[in-house]
Design goal:
Layout lengths: L23 E7 L3 H11 L3 E6 L3 H10 L4 E2 L4 H4 L4 E7 L5 H10 L3 E5 L6 H14 L3 E4 L1 H4 L2 H11 L6 E9 L14 H4 L6 H13 L4 E9 L12 E8 L4 E7 L13 E6 L2 E6 L12 E5 L4 E5 L7 H12 L7 H23 L2
Parallel strand pairs: 1-2, 1-4, 2-3, 4-5, 5-6, 7-10
Antiparallel strand pairs: 7-11, 8-9, 9-10, 11-12, 12-13, 13-14
Amino acid sequence: MPQLSPYAPSGPQPKPVVSPGECCFAASHFEHGHIYMQIDGLAQAGGTLTKIYEPDDAKAAKVLQHYPDCKRVACFEEILEDPRVRIVTSAAIPDERCDLGLQVLRARKEYLTDKAPFTTLDQLQRAWEAARDTGQRYMCCYSERLLSEAAYHAGELIRQGAIGQVLQVINLAPHNLGAAGRPDWFFQKARYGGILTDIGSHQFEQFLHYTGATDGVVNFARVENFANPAYPELEDFGEASLTLNNGASCYCRLDWFNPAGLRSWGDGRTFALGTKGTLEIRKQLDVGQDHGGEKIYLVDQEREHLIDCQGKVGFPFFGQYILDVLHGTEQAMTQAHSFKAAELSLRAQAAADAGRSSD
């Protein structure tokens, strides 16, 4: 299946959008490994990492080794009080992310958190109010799209009309559990929010982005603990069905049953049906093949296309986000979009919890 140049990524990866020191940022609360990708993404886009706050010496050392010019501070308030810092990026324990973000916004700084940005609808409401009151953004790095070259490029293809109007999106997201290496909070429902709130927030963001919808209703949602009785608050399986406000249908399945024989931590796939074609994204790998992931399989009205995005797209979100911060624009992601993805995942989780408690 040959590449078709109008579909294949073209040009070099994004370059820094600002000069050193033009947009300083800080990082804090390294509870999830996504924080390192958030730091690298901002730095590669030209952001200058000036301060970090993380009590764990080993976690802090990992960043200081790569960014020796940044300063490790003894308390989070030192970051909030630094007038040079425009952005604070964090990956706190999920139920602590909202209160942390509110501190950042009230200090008149921008907040970029790991997913999920909230564990309750009340937190979401408080964040909306703070964003309106302060004029600062409370953004979430939905990394399954923003840190996947294929997933990002697929959005560009859809926007250009490669498969016509999107009628349905299906997301499958198996993950490795690796229970022995997980912190205690990972197994506490109130702390991680549930599987649809956590992993599901990625999927709901992709639903909105790929379809162009701005809202939706949850038709069905379910969570279970099928095979991990030692962790009774863990949900190892979740699924949800939605109808979006432009008529598109969406379904996701999330689980902690990634087979041990797979050479990757997961096998995330997205399937999009359009009026003029179909598209499949294989993010981590292509099962049974020697080549890696970051592939798009697209079928249009003329033929089949295999599009290799590895090393050709980069992560444009971070540069766009920095420019949004500096210029007051919303090119990378709107506040409404970021919050709506979280809201739908929380509503799906609530529906699944209600159905489980009534059984």
